[in-house]
Design brief:
Number of domains of chain A: 3
CATH class of the largest domain in chain A: Alpha Beta
Helix content of chain A: 25-40%
Structural class of chain A: alpha/beta
Largest interface: A-B, 92 and 92 residues
CATH topology of the largest domain in chain A: Molybdenum Cofactor Biosythetic Enzyme, Chain A
CATH superfamily of the largest domain in chain A: MoaB/Mog-like domain
Oligomer: homodimer
Strand content of chain A: 25-35%
Chain lengths: ~425, ~425
């Protein structure tokens, strides 16, 4: 089954913005055996959008339209699709009531323009939006379907998963797709691919995608087969080989490292604190992005200045003077001081130079010392991360979490660079 | 003048890849006063591509096609565009000679399939490609033009700059585009749009885009006029009215709030510290995402647990017991304790319930108390933010930064909800 995606929004036609929803949607559709054959971006222009909808529906059985469902005048998706289908927009008082209730709960009064969001195309089913005000819409036309989804990814994704996926499953021709994911830390993307590509390239009905974020690689295996047993057997066969190659660099079958580490801590009734210099809150932000992280995360110190390293985390002034703030002794002292002052089972510390300024020949931009202190003692390592400020910070936070994972599980430490 | 861009390549329809050439091309075209009105991504499918080319040429005077000019069978752009235009492909021996020469200089023999790249559409001008083998093509049709460009950015960009830009300058009607941006905090998107849309809708040659992130709205005005003076006058006229309506909710003409607040602090030689409970590092992460933030950011406390609020930031145990951790007195004590312990000029504190768990009837999910302590004293406010965990945290961090901006500039405080 073929699908087309239209992203609506004049901002997506500027030099600054891309439609990224279509990537996520494509992955979801592919998993059902649905191929995306064309993507379009159209501005907030009712006529143009209506024309595009007509063109797509003349050739493809499934159209997804994202964006343009907001309350303002330039949100034209409802009107344009109704026009293309030759249908009316129908006011739904129950949707309006839900939107009003949402505002009331927040102690606010709904603006009059939000009424626009209570209109559905004739014959459409409303797709509930627990996160925002705009409901989605599902419209079935003989053997075709049109789906309207809100633009913000935080609204689009749960709506698609909860309400569109089940409907598509019911209409997409049966092809069994089974997937397996490995999340991997402590290896570069090119290195990983060089090692595992000789394995996955041997299989025709397997597609493999390697997605890399700083310090964090996802290997997605996708088997498309006639039946479930065949698909599972294929994943088993390939997965076995990949696991043998990557070993303990594989940290989870899907969940991010902050979730995995959180679960390890919770299982052991252990607690965690952090001291962050160059990551400036990023490490704690990732840890606390996990609901329920208060079960194990106590808090810690943001030690951006030398004074904070000394006064807050208790790093001896002499260490700072002798070795400088970006050094192994200071990383150790940060971790140990944080552990002592918070009473946490484990403490992670990061001190480094995220750039673009501040590097020296001995300690270039991208240098970071990471330390973990725990009941078994303290270990620290020097790393050199490549890339801009954002990448260096992301690498440092990810690698710190991986050091903690290895410590808790009793795995060998990640090789860092020897201290200079 | 309107333009459309078609990116060709099946790899651009996978979940991993985006067409980014169109961003650069859009910036180039906009600078000439040419608007991009639709973007499309089409796979290596000759029929589909030919159909899309026909559709575009029926409605727009300029079409740019990127990619699909390589030597292999799945490079279908030449054939598809020729078919759409009803023209033949013509072999050019001088182009073949140039390609062969290129291979010879590299000490290699040209593969036979590269002959395909020596074909131009009847009537096309070849656009030289000093970086790769595929020439581009420029085809003039009465009052329309079609441009074929290679997909690799390193080939596309110099070819566009050297050979397409001068040709477009000769045919594009002289039109000047000038833009103005307002970044706005402390107002909901729907509320903002309801207030300013009566203004911007009155102007035909102005396009307005409203982009909303949690607590952070960008209003982009774009004036398309005959000359620069007219464009600037239009922006001035509309901008004046929008500024009068939004007042001190406008915080900057483009830079994000963490950059603006950083500059305000730096100008005043003031320093900042934070104490974060529900935002868990997000506020500090945003502040320290700005290069050079060590000029004013000292650090602070991650106070996820009650114990951390007490031991690290010095919140009296009696306050925590009496009012609970998510309360105005605790927010104040966090800000004041952090300011005292770090010696910073200003301290921001956030304590709240990001959810999904932890809410009560009196303190539902999304409730946050934000406080700012400074030389002028301490103020705290209760807010109720809507959305999931990520949104609540993003709203809280943004609103805390806005409280600090207002404090430093001596502006009235943002109205929060009255403490219950």
């Amino acid at each position: 089954m073929d699908a087309e995606i239209i992203a609506v929004g004049s901002e997506l036609l500027t030099p600054e913005r891309l439609d990224t929803n279509s990537l996520w949607l494509t992955a979801q559709l592919n998993a059902l055996g649905i191929e995306v054959v064309t993507k379009m971006v159209i501005g907030d222009d009712r006529e143009r959008l209506a024309q595009a909808v007509r063109t797509v529906l003349a050739r493809s059985p499934l159209l997804l339209v994202t964006g343009g469902l907001g309350p303002t005048e330039d949100d034209v998706t409802r009107e344009a699709v109704a026009e293309a289908l030759g249908r009316e927009l129908v006011f739904h008082p129950e949707i309006l009531a839900a939107i009003e209730e949402r505002f009331r709960r927040a102690g606010r009064v709904m603006a009059e323009i939000n009424r626009r969001q209570a209109f559905l195309i004739e014959g459409a089913e409303a797709l509930p939006n627990p996160v925002g005000t705009a409901p989605g819409q599902w419209i079935r036309l003989d053997d075709r379907a049109v789906v309207l989804l809100p633009g913000p990814p935080g609204e689009l994704k749960p709506m698609f998963t909860d309400h569109v996926l089940p409907r598509l499953r019911a209409i997409a021709p049966p092809l069994v797709i089974r997937t397996r994911t490995y999340r991997v830390a402590g290896i570069a993307e090119s290195d990983l691919d060089q090692r595992i590509s000789p394995v996955y390239k041997r299989y025709a009905n397997l597609s493999t995608t390697v997605l890399a974020a700083p310090g964090d690689i996802q290997v997605h295996l996708r088997a498309r087969c006639q039946d479930e047993r065949e698909a599972e057997a294929l994943l088993q066969e390939v997965g076995h080989q990949i696991e043998a190659i990557l070993g303990d660099r594989i940290y989870s079958p899907g969940e991010p490292l902050e979730v995995l580490v959180g679960n390890l801590l919770r299982q052991r009734r252990a607690t965690l604190a952090v001291a962050e210099s160059c990551t400036g809150g990023l490490l704690a932000e990732r840890i606390t992005s996990v609901p329920g992280s208060s079960d194990y995360f106590l808090g810690g110190f943001l030690v951006y200045s030398n004074q904070a390293k000394r006064d807050l985390a208790g790093v001896p002034a002499s260490l700072l003077e002798e070795h400088g703030p970006v050094s192994e002794p200071v990383a150790r002292a940060l971790a140990e001081g944080t552990r002592a002052r918070t009473g946490a089972s484990y403490a992670l510390a990061v001190t480094g130079i995220a750039g673009p300024g501040g590097g020296t020949e001995a300690t270039p931009v991208g240098t970071a010392y990471l330390a973990v202190a725990g009941p078994e003692g303290t270990s620290a390592r020097r790393f050199r991360f490549l890339g801009d400020r954002e990448r260096v910070r992301a690498f440092a936070a990810q690698t710190a979490l991986d050091m903690l994972r290895r410590r808790i599980l009793g795995l060998p430490e990640i090789p860092g660079l020897a201290p200079s």
